[in-house]
Design a protein that fits this description.
A hairpin with a 4-residue loop joins strand 7 and strand 8. The chain is α+β, with helices and mostly antiparallel strands. The strands form 4 sheets. It has a two-stranded antiparallel sheet with strand order 1-2. The model has no long low-confidence stretch (mean pLDDT 86).
């Protein structure tokens, strides 16, 4: 089984045990896509060769919310679509196929469709995004565990915690925050 580094770190934090690593693989980026072009989306200028798209979109979403210009939801959808989903995009094609789908003890013979990889399909990026998010949520859980508290509910990018620990958790993550803090957090 292969695990991302965020999962290995979280395992150590939550169990206190050092995972046994048999083999490590490192992926390095090479070059820049030649097709990258400047664009203006929802009134936001983006240069993918220089700009951090996600940082800009998150800050623009918060600014839109602050000034109430009606773009907040559209920017949120754009940020979500470009930050994860696009990297795991599979496009369904209804074509003749001899594929049998097995799930547990069931076989689905009548589901004869094929999934073609999307243009930006990149399972490594998609996996590392979710693994990194799991680490961040797990760090919040570690903070609560030292107070003998638990996370009440957890989603892919948020959790519900006892309110009295909010400031401690926000302060823990402040050094990692790449955003203009006056836009993101209100205490």
């Amino acid at each position: 089984m292969y695990y991302g580094l965020p999962s290995v770190l979280l395992s150590r934090l939550l169990t206190g045990k050092i995972p046994k690593i048999k083999r490590a693989i490192r992926f390095l980026p090479v070059g820049t896509q030649t097709t990258l072009r400047k664009a203006r989306i929802l009134g936001i200028d983006i240069n993918p060769k220089n700009d951090n798209l996600f940082k800009i979109l998150v800050e623009q979403k918060q600014e839109s919310k602050r000034v109430n210009d009606g773009r907040e939801k559209a920017i949120k959808i754009l940020a979500n679509a470009t930050s994860y989903g696009i990297y795991f995009q599979l496009d369904r094609e209804d074509i003749k196929s001899n594929i049998m789908v097995y799930s547990g003890n069931e076989a689905f013979i009548d589901k004869k469709f094929y999934e073609k990889l999307g243009e930006y399909y990149h399972p490594l990026i998609a996996t590392m995004i979710t693994d990194g998010a799991k680490l961040l949520l797990g760090l919040g859980d570690c903070i609560l565990q030292k107070h003998n508290e638990v996370v009440a509910y957890c989603d892919t990018d948020s959790f519900f915690i006892p309110p009295k620990y909010k400031d401690e958790i926000v302060e823990f993550f402040d050094p990692l925050n790449p955003y203009k803090t006056y836009l993101i957090f209100s205490r």
